[in-house]
Amino acid sequence: MVEYITHNSDVLTEAIYPEAVIMFSMNLFRTLPPSSNPTGAEFDPEEDEPTLEAAWPHLQLVYEFFLRFLESPDFQPNIAKKYIDQKFVLSLLELFDSEDPRERDFLKTILHRIYGKFLGLRAYIRRQINNIFYSFIYETEHHNGIAELLEILGSIINGFALPLKEEHKMFLIRVLLPLHKVKSLSVYHPQLAYCVVQFLEKDSSLTEPVIMGLLKFWPKTHSPKEVMFLNELEEILDVIEPSEFVKVQEPLFRQLAKCVSSPHFQVAERALYYWNNEYIMSLISDNAAKILPIMFPALYKNSKSHWNKTIHGLIYNALKLFMEMNQKLFDDCTQQYKAEKQREKYKLKERDEIWQKIEVLAQQNPQFMLFGDGGVGVFSMETDTPTAEDIQLLKKTVESEASQGLKDLKKDKVLMRRKSELPQDVYTIKALEAHKRAEEYLTANQEAL
After folding, report:
1. Domains with residue ranges and CATH for the chain
2. Which CB contacts under 8 angstroms, 24+ apart, belong to 437-440?
3. Is Cytoplasm set as a keyword in this record (predicted)?
4. pLDDT, tens digit (0-9, with 9 covering 90-100), for 45-58
5. How far is CA 178 from the centre of its chain?
């Protein structure tokens, strides 16, 4: 049947349509088995093997036939819309929670074809996908097809007509941004980042709410997730307009300063790589008077205190670039930092003196011998204050270490999280390798609605 519908023309008579849809529905619309890991750790595509559908040889033929049916030159949406309706689409979307990636791959292509051919179903499809996302974000935090649904949406967003409808902007703010807070973000993050960047390329005025939303959901204790946020943020900055950059530069670089100070070296390293991006450096150069005072304390402190040698080289590189941008501003920031540290030192000294006075008064109390421990414990909380010699040494070190650090960075092997070596299921590997994608990349549907 698959070969017949593929290689022959004029085979799709009106009588075929209901039979094809019924055949597809009877064979594929089913209750999915319970999740193999409903409450455990999220699925890791690099380590975990997917659970494959036992009946796949049978299901694959049905999927192949229906996809060829939709893609046939003889296919007439006006006839098919009687049978491919909202109920059919809803049943199709329920299958996206299948654990078999081969089934989700076919579903993705079929739903994309339906979206392209049936204009009347477009709004309904988007609304039902939204409902899946809402349930995933706020209720279950478990769904196997989020990456595939986002891939479809990436193609749909690419075809949105300008100016963007309010409905589409709300989808970005209320659905795509909250998707960043789910713990299984790593499974679908590339597709999510693509959708966000597509929106910003369509409408640059959305940049501020998007970046502020990312900062709102910024991970506090999950370092691999923080690296993903930094990757996405750089993609956003690559398409940002200078006028929009000015609106978000201060909160943005306050967060980057925290990342540079992170004890997790991959977070600090990823943040410092921003200084290797020419477009971002041009934005920083134009707004150095605002950005350098925010970044300088973190850069100076970690140039001395960070445990990782690679980070030292990257920090010296960033300091050198700032120094070359505006020497006077760099010197001013250095002096301000020195003055701030002196003030902190003075306040801490005052605090120590007050505690000493309290201790002396306590010793004069008649009951001190009964309840006191007999010792005077004064804890110094002084911080290192940069001296004039430190400042001069910093400038000399920046020149030498910046170039040396970049050489070492290229030479040294990058440290990565080591994956556990688990025995792999040979059948699963062969089955996934044998699966040929219905279409490697989804093409955009131009939506004039």
Report:
1. 1-34+50-181 (1.25.10.10)
2. 437/105, 438/67, 438/105, 438/106, 438/108, 438/109, 438/110, 439/109
3. yes
4. 556 677 887 888 88
5. 11
